[in-house]
Amino acid sequence: MRFNIGSHYKSFILLHLPVYIYAIGLFVLSSIPDLSPPDLGFQPQDKVYHFVFYASYAFFVARSFFAQSRWLRIKNSFVFYSIIFTALYGVSDEIHQYFVPGRVFSIFDILANSLGAIAGTLIFYYYDRYKSRKTKLNKISN
To answer: What is the residue extent of each domain of the chain?
Structure first.
């Protein structure tokens, strides 16, 4: 017997669930007191981690906002809303860390999170444009 999930649920699992999982993962990581990530060999390495984690998160947020069809304003302006949403999540993450023993609130972490939000959203934007252009060229050549 084959299990067949509907296209709505498949779409949710592939496009939207990663946003929730990533948000929960970021929250859990920021809840760990005195978290010590691997040493990269230079001083502001935690800012690199913030940038990379939030760029990845923003990529998933942008993909989710672009793929949804319920709120057309968000879909049509997904770049703006993805950056704002991810950056605000980064701010809330820093506020949360203020209350975790051994963790601190840092404006520079907010800056790294926000720059990551911009980078991840733009990576998705240009990836989607490239994919769309490639699809159009394949249709023309066939």
So the answer is: 50-134
